[in-house]
Amino acid sequence: MTVVDSHLRLVGKVNDPQYQRVRKAVEVLEKVAGNIDIQLINLLPTDYEIYVQNLECPERGPVKRFHKENMLYMTGETESDMVYAGGSTKFLQWAKDVYGYDDSRTNTMFFKRLATKQFRHAMEKTGHKFFKMEFECGEESLGFVIVELFTSLCPVTCNKFLQYVRGDLGKRYQGSTIHRIVPGGWVQGGDLLEGKGDGIIEEDCFPDETFTVKHSRPGIIGLASVGPHTNNSQFYITLEALPWLDGTKVAFGQVVEGMRVLKVLEKLETVNERPKEQVTIKSCSEIKTA
Questions:
Q1: How large is the angle between the packed helices 88-99 and 17-32, nearest 10 degrees?
Q2: What is 7-122's CATH superfamily?
Q3: Beta-carbon neighbour count of residue 244 at 10 Å?
């Protein structure tokens, strides 16, 4: 059946090779499909997951229940009546059926390299700094998160945090523990004294810089202070939106990739909110985007 909708919206994770394959197809279609308006929305991984989570399909309900791809497309006669139509497979089949588009001879490595390049470009475009943190339970790697630091909003806080990422002060996050997991709340780590959450390096405490960044989504990173102006090395990453923390905790960044890893952490067995099996930060490093 020929698709005759005049508007298409394609949304995807910028670091996904299949989405980059679709983007290349769009570049060709825009030259031959003059009667169709095609909108591309390039999103960082976590932004895409939140987008899908909030999307409803009139006939099938919440899209997150049945759509598992890293890109989706929507169609509609107007921009205001867009409905879910499928993922990359359906879109590329439509492009082939209607316009004869076929990229089957293109090496898949091309799209993988393009995805890596576009992800780095998307990070660089923000003007912010990023770091990568890998978690380990026992001797098993749980995966990593990539976090964007809002250096334009809270430069002092971000630079202080990066000192522990890099080990500039003789203390570093690598090898330290995740000592607290609150399901539906947050994961917490960064105690560089005893690793139990009780340690505060008083001489390293610094003031609350700003409360501009809100706890409005999962994946917000902030400082686990014990009162006004007691920020130190301890940090938390939210598992849900936690607006009740606004105005009391300094948030300064967000997870852009790796929410799945945080969900794995959330499901670990705990005793009094402490992981039953030790969870450590296996590696932690700043990402150079330029």
A1: 30
A2: Glutaredoxin (3.40.30.10)
A3: 9
> What is the residue extent of each domain of the chain?
7-122, 127-287
Distance CA 93, CA 114 (A): 21
3-state helix/strand/coil string of 28-76: HHHHHCCCCEEEEEEECHHHHHHHHHCCEECCCEEHHHCCCCCEEEEEE
Could you give the CA distance from residue 116 to residue 19 in angstroms, rounded to a whole number? 12
Average pLDDT, the chain: 92
Chain segment 182-234, per-residue pLDDT in tens: 999 999 999 988 777 776 777 778 999 999 999 999 999 999 998 899 999 99
224-225-231 Cα angle (round to 5) = 105
Residue 76: its pLDDT value, please? 85
Tens digits of residue pLDDT in 145-155: 999 999 999 99
C-alpha–C-alpha distance, residues 9 and 73, integer Å: 5
> Which residues does 68 contact at the CB level (< 8 Å), separation at least 6?
none
Q: Which residues are CB-neighbours of 108 under 8 A, at least 6 positions away?
A: 17
Question: First CA to last CA across the chain, in angstroms?
Answer: 46
